[in-house]
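Bug report

Summary: structure tokens for UPF0270 protein BTJ39_13560 differ between web form and batch submission.
Environment: batch mode, default settings.
Steps: 1) Submit the sequence below via batch. 2) Compare with the web form result.

Sequence submitted:
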Amino acid sequence: MIIPWQQLEAETLNNLIEAFVLREGTDYGEQERSLEQKVADVRRQLQNGEAVLVWSELHETVNIMPQNSFRG
């Protein structure tokens, strides 16, 4: 189920994005990006509709996924 990110408290949304960024462990190449930059990137993707917040009833977790890979 998609969770409308706009309905979350700002602090809650930020905490979800930070947790997502910290667990991803993505290699950004030669240029290392700060946590703040990574959070801003994910926030921008949510705002642009490129990514969505998804609640998994099975795992009782929230995840951030690319919009085009979500099958609701």
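Above is the batch result. After comparison, the two runs are identical; trailing whitespace caused the diff. The chain has a mean pLDDT of 88. The helical segments are 10-24, 35-48.
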